[in-house]
Amino acid sequence: MKFQSPKGVSEYFPPRSHAFEFVRDRLLAPIKNAGYQLLELPIFEDTELFTRGVGESTDVVSKEMYTFEDRGGRSITLRPEGTVGALRSVIEHGLDRAGLPVKVFYCGSFFRAERPQAGRYRQFYSVGIEAIGSDDPALDAEVIALAYEGFYGIGLRKFRLEVTSLGDAQSRKAHRVDLVAYINSLNLDEATKARAQINPLRLFDDKRPDVAAMMAKAPRLLDYLSTESADHFAKVQEYLSAMGIAFTINPLMVRGLDYYTGTTFEFVHEDLGAQSGIGGGGRYDGLMESIGGQNISGIGFGLGIDRALLAAEAEGVVSSTDFAPTLYLIPLGQSAKAVAMKLAHELRDSDISVEVAMGDKALKNAMKSADKSGALFSLVLGESELESGNVELKEMSTGVATSVTLSALVPTLITRTSKK
Ligand code: HAM
Q1: Where is the Aminoacyl-transfer RNA synthetases class-II family profile domain (predicted)?
Q2: Pairing of strands 37-38, 102-111
Q3: Which part of the chain has CATH 3.40.50.800?
């Protein structure tokens, strides 16, 4: 019997998993530098948390959740996104009682029963942050900048940032009146009408050409912003410009989740075809309260690691072969093996990556493994090297060997790798 991974999941194994790790860590680096702290969350939650928090008009809740009954008869759902679980944790543990804003990040797998295609998976990986409890527009700009820096840090250049504002309650109320009147004047099927009743904004995201054509003429929320919302949005733009972050305003943007208000944004990559959204997020004014917390706003994002990796590969800025060990160590004979083990232990302690040839291979075979590992250097440790205390450090790309004393190995490797 041969088993296969479930349909539509993304899975990373060597050598590509190195590139995955690289992308994930680059996305996380600016977040950590800005003082966001780790939330390690469960991957399943009460189903109701998502129906309430994410919204029943969304595809995510209505069609894509992996929901099941656990052994205690509770309805459980594999997390389709990270925000509401993060907020649930913040509320449950009172993190919002100990100084605001609360700034947290998380990273892991998420589950949506979507139709699988390139860049769209049923289990995917995402890095997210949430900053809760401050209305400062500088926070919006900071959050957007952290996503931008993450993508930029991977080496991505062919992406653009789109921003819009969904306004405050007052703006949305004024817009809704005109939007609903407009939608009611259209000739729509019953299912679409029902969706529009729960959230009329959702229709802006309808991909059917006839509906999209009708919605292109619909009243736009951006034209209904209250003075406060317009000021807030103007400040966000001012801060982004001050940071040198280019953006375009997309008044037709609709995010796939219902909780957004105010500043909303998406990062779109040019080379990814249909699944071009590499990250997105925004503010959510009423969400904390709707799931039992204080009436405070928050803002955050989710960045798709799978898609950022595809984008990095498309731009040629990451290669799975870039992640080889610094040194491949080949002991010849039993006494050399113990010394090699000790040496590898010390080198790793100095943050130098080392692989040791295992299985007492003959030199020729061991050198083949060294080649295959992609190591920058190799070193053979035999009886004569042990006696003299001198080793030949061979640079694999050129084949040039340099004589080094064992005691000088660590500093030598540090200097020679830092030049690379
Ligand atoms: P989202 O846009 O639904 O936002 O997901 C975040 C990112 O995850 C997307 O931009 C995309 O790159 C990636 N993604 C989503 N679905 C899939 C999929 N099926 N396969 C591969 N990648 C996917 C959220 O989830 C919000 N929680 C973000 C947020 C945080 N908003 C405020 N705070």
Answers
A1: 22-331
A2: parallel
A3: 325-416
Residues at CB less than 6 angstroms from ligand 1: 81-83, 112, 114, 119-121, 124, 126, 128, 130, 256-257, 277-282, 300-302, 304, 306-307
Give the integer Cα–Cα distance in Å for 80 and 351: 37
Q: Tokens standing for 24?
A: 């994930």
- 137 prior amide bond cis, ω within 30: no
Query: Domain 13-167+225-313 class?
Result: alpha beta
The fourth-level CATH superfamily of domain 325-416 is: Anticodon-binding domain (3.40.50.800)
Band (pLDDT 50/70/90 cuts) for residue 207 is confident
State CA 55 to chain mean position distance.
22
Q: Which residues pair with 69 in a beta bridge?
A: 75
Separation of 68 CA from ligand 1 center, angstroms?
22
Task: Give the pLDDT score at 48.
Answer: 96
Tens digit of each residue's pLDDT (9 = 90 or more) over 143-157? 999 999 999 999 999
Cα of 36 to ligand 1 centre, how many Å? Answer: 19
pLDDT at 418 over 80: no
Quick: pLDDT tens for 305-328. 999 999 999 999 998 777 889 999
Beta carbons within 8 Å of 23's beta carbon, 6+ residues apart = 154, 305, 308, 309, 312, 318
Q: What whole-number distance in Å separates Cα of residue 255 and Cα of residue 140?
A: 16
Quick one: which atom of ligand 1 is closest to the CA of 266? 10
| pTM exceeding the 0.90 threshold for the entire prediction | yes
Q: Where in the chain is the domain with CATH 3.30.930.10?
A: 13-167+225-313
Helices 334-349/409-418 angle, 10° precision: 50
Q: Residue 66: is it exposed, middle or buried by C-beta count within 10 angstroms (0-12/13-18/19+)? A: middle
